[in-house]
Amino acid sequence: MTQPPTIAGVLLAGGLSRRMGGGDKSLRVLGGATILARVIARARPQVAALVLNANGDPARFREFGLPVVSDSIPDFAGPLAGVLAGLDWAAVNVAGATHVASFATDAPFLPTDLVARLANAVKDGRHDLACAASDGRSHPVFGLWPLDLREDLRAALHTGMRKVDQWTARHRLAVVDFPVQPEDPFFNANTPEDLERAARSIRA
Question: Is the four-CA dihedral 127, 181, 50, 120 of positive or negative sign?
């Protein structure tokens, strides 16, 4: 890249939260603030603009003051559909946007240097996109996605592709490893037990 990328952000909140008992797990309160508020506080400074991907009535997120976009692919098609929604939104609403960074909305400790490190991994042009990893596991929902690939992603989704790893394997993916001390920054609150564990970390 000859110019620094212009990166928008998409918060992925379009899932069904079955393991949390349904509803919006990102709206669960953790240490006096919702998980979503904690994620926004960490994600917003890293991007040029931020959008929330969620299905259903957008009014439930009004207090956060973010634009809300739903999946264009029906039937809760998973995080790839949310990434596509973010790419489409950025193409229309963020002047000069080149990439979209995606953030899971159940990870209250996500790295504050996530986007900078993902962008650094693709700046030499040898990789098309990037995702985060920690403790030997990749976290593809924390990724950096070029707008140039959005029609490829749309076509893949329309053929029934749903697995993030399946689509990223078709492109040159950089995997960026993050340290897990003092805790894994990609810890996600999927269950009530996870929520209590996160609360203990905040209290500590």
Answer: negative
Q: Under CATH, what is the fold of the domain 7-203?
A: Spore Coat Polysaccharide Biosynthesis Protein SpsA; Chain A (3.90.550)
Q: Is residue 20 scored above 50 in pLDDT?
A: no
| Domain boundary assignment for the chain | 7-203
Determine contact, residues 133/172, Cβ cutoff 8 Å.
no
In Å, what is the CA distance from 19 to each residue of 70, 78, 80, 193?
Answer: 22, 15, 20, 10
The predicted model scores a pTM of 0.92
- State the helix-helix crossing angle for 79-93 and 150-158, rounded to 10 degrees: 140
Task: Please give the torsion angle defined by the CA atoms of residues 170, 172, 178 and 184, in that order, rounded to the nearest 10 degrees.
Answer: -10
Q: Is 181 helix (H, G, I), strand (E, B) or coil?
A: coil
Cβ neighbours of residue 147 closer than 8 Å, sequence gap 6 or more: 87, 90, 91, 97, 98, 99, 100
Q: Are 47 and 7 in contact (CB under 8 A)?
A: yes
Q: Report the chain's mean pLDDT, rounded to a whole number.
A: 91
Q: Express each pLDDT in 183-195 by its tens digit.
A: 899 998 888 888 8
Q: What is the pLDDT of residues 162-173, one digit of tens each?
A: 999 999 999 999
If DSSP codes are grouped into helix, strand and coil, which group holds residue 1? coil
